[in-house]
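Q: A small favour: would you put together sequence and structure tokens for a protein?
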Amino acid sequence: MIAITLIRNRWSSLIFIAVLIVFTLVFMVIQLRRFHLPDAQAFDLGIFQQGVWLLANGYSPFVTVQGWR
């Protein structure tokens, strides 16, 4: 009885890990494809990169390109 329970738990864990890996790979491919499309402008990505850099270095997040806060 214990052996059946252990086998069942092992299979459910393996299935869960497999689904998790597939989910991660699918969304990683989707995001990488979106990033490499012509619609992903440097300006769009630069706004967020500048904000993260400013916050990481102790500054207020301020976008110098547009003057937005």
